[in-house]
Amino acid sequence: MQLIQRKQSTFLTSLVSVLLGMLVGAVMMLVAGYDPIQAYAALLSSAFLMPYDIGETIRTISPLILTGLAVGLAYRTGLFNIGVEGQFIIGQLAATIIALKLDLPPVIHAVVAVIAGAIGGALWAFLPGLLKATRGVHEVIVTIMMNFIALYLSNVLVRNWLSAGADSTEKIPSSASLRWDSLSSLFGGARIHMGIFIALASALFMYYLLWRTTSGFELRAVGFNPDASEYAGMSVKRSLILSMMISGSFAGLAGASELLGTSGYLAIQGAHTGIGFDGIAVALLGANTPGGILLAASLFGILTYGGSNMQFVEGVPFEVVRVVFAAIILFVAANIVRWGTQKFRKKAVKEHA
Amino acid sequence: MLDVLTNILQTTVLYATPLILAAIGGLFSERSGVVNIGLEGLMTIGAFTGAVVTLATHNPWIGLLAAIVAGILFALPHAVASITFKADQVVSGVAINFLALGVSVYLVKSLYDGAAQTPTVKETLTRLPIPGLDQIPVIGPALFNAFPTTYLAILVVIITYFLLYRTPFGMRLRAVGEHPRAAETMGVNVFRMRYIAVLISGALAGAGGAGLSIAIGSEFNQTTVAGQGFISLAALIFGKWNPFGVLGAATFFGFAVGLALIGQIFGLTTYIPSEVLNMLPYILTILALAGFVGRAEGPAAVGKPYETGGR
């Protein structure tokens, strides 16, 4: 009974936070003199207008699912992986290296490149996990620092190794691509690619791992109470490192599939892509469960793709969508619903007495 | 050779200034027990406000003041969420970063017909020579012919040191960050102290951000801050949460940022890619945290929401 109540209140928190977040966005639009109702209508309709738009929306959702899973899985073990952004970059980098430097037959080439991305992300997450487990260093600071190291590492390698001093690499060979023409033509030529299946499979994997295996039980137990887990004979250190590495591999998969499916080349970047940070919002809104993350990623994906079209249709700057995301995070984090009901309960108890 | 030295020193001071201001801001917040990942966002909103208000009023001093006020306003949601609502402080800080970048770029596009950056600010803060001292060779032009924000930053470091270690306010602030329960038993209002500290961090990070858009640079766009808030956070840790330590760390990181930018002039970047210089602050911070470059340990109660009446 209590469990059901808690689940309901989590869902209610998310729902109320989304509505309040959209309200904040509406106020922002009013302030700048736009019509929020027209803008939101344009946003929603352009996310689903044509098969092409649906395909593009799904493409936008895919990496958000993976980065959301990355943040969510680590959170289950009590770790806050802000480094998803960096692990995403390393995933892109590893996939690019395999795609450009190895000559393999089709399909196998793509599979190897995707796996390389996952391994790259996992390795990039290993150090913060290790430092947390052995030296008690807070993973938040280490992963933030590693995000920047990843960015500069990727840039220096693109300039000096993967291209001849240019700002971006050449396009990857089609043998390593995740595009699938039949799928793309089904959605009017949209850039939708195999990444969505990788994302859905990863969500299933997270569910199976956490709720159907002993290792997964240990990961959750450590997140719940590390001292009790240690006392019960589990290796907390092993769980912390394992959790970070699986989390990093999800992020690496996101990077690899974005590169092999969407962009097709790696460019020098002046700043972070933000997809990794979006994962934080997705995981938080999805209450760190695979199902919740799928829903939250869909919502953010629709807002992101629809929002970029809204800019063309209604002239409302896309950044209003970023403001909506930020507001949603704040409302979920502050757990506005619980706070409201607590006040109400306290009042009721007082009046009763 | 002397010219090169002067040039390096000048650039170091230039790029260290915003880092010092923001990092000292972070020091107040974290010393009171509130993690502030949001420094990046607070600098962003400061840079945005500084540029826009200066463009409107043609007075960079009003721009700087407005940036400080904007920093305080944007630190407020972080304070409310993490102190009153006991939200996860890291999550709340991340939200502030999102919010600040979203709001400022959105408003730039709305204000300037969809442009991605503000027009060029003509009336920026200008270098203020201190007569006599600026004639000292090498250090004169760097230290005593600096932007007003540099003098402000150095003043802030000195004031912070005295405030923290020589006044009852500072003692309470540190107590709240180390052992809030004990502090409350002695009659200190933990919530109030933390609110004040987080708002001070907003003010200083806002000023640091303005330094980027109306002193070093002369416009605001999406990449004006680009990670300098996170470098400030690194400087705070590398400087071990101590005002003069932070000054040293921020100066060193300013040197790294500056060297990456001016390295080309001396042909340095043909030997060391500028990206490697850019990485340096982050690598050093990880080493410091891991205990290879002196142990960096934060205030004991940092990151933990405080509940009255608990144990």
Provide an overview of this structure.
Chain B: It holds the Pfam family BPD_transp_2. The complex is a heterodimer of chains A (353) and B (311). Helix content of chain A is 78%, strand content 0%. By secondary structure, chain A is mainly α. Chain A has a domain at 56-300: ABC transporter involved in vitamin B12 uptake, BtuC, CATH 1.10.3470. The longest helix of chain A has 30 residues, at 2-31. Chain A is globular. Chain B has a single domain (2-290), classed as ABC transporter involved in vitamin B12 uptake, BtuC (Orthogonal Bundle). Helices cover 68% and strands 1% of the residues of chain B. Chain B has helices at 2-31, 39-57, 60-84, 89-111, 139-143, 148-166, 168-178, 180-185, 190-216, 228-238, 243-262, 274-290, and strands spanning 128-129, 145-146. Chain B has a two-stranded antiparallel ribbon. In chain B, helix 1 packs across helix 6 (148-166) and helix 3 runs antiparallel to helix 4. The longest helix of chain B has 30 residues, at 2-31. At the A-B interface, helix 5, helix 6, helix 12 and helix 14 of A face helix 3, helix 4, helix 10 and helix 12 of B.
Characteristics of this structure?
heterodimer; A: about 350 residues; mainly alpha; ABC transporter involved in vitamin B12 uptake, BtuC; 15 helices; B: about 300 residues; two-stranded antiparallel ribbon
Instruction: Tell me the strand percentage band of chain B.
Output: under 5%
The most extensive interface between chains reads: A-B, 47 and 46 residues
Strand content of chain A: under 5%
CATH fold-level label of chain B: ABC transporter involved in vitamin B12 uptake, BtuC
Largest sheet of chain B: 2 strands, antiparallel
Mean pLDDT of chain B: 89
CATH topology of the domain at 56-300 in chain A: ABC transporter involved in vitamin B12 uptake, BtuC
Which sheet architecture does the biggest sheet of chain A show?
none
Tell me, briefly, the overall form of chain B. globular
Order of helices and strands of chain A: HHHHHHHHHHHHHHH
Low-confidence runs of chain B (pLDDT<50, min 5 residues)? none
* Rounded Rg of chain B: 19 Å
CATH class of the domain at 56-300 in chain A: Mainly Alpha
Instruction: Look at the helices and sheets of chain A and give the structural class.
Output: mainly alpha
Categorize the overall geometry of chain A.
globular
N-C termini distance of chain A:
26 Å
The helix/strand order of chain B is HHHHEHEHHHHHHH
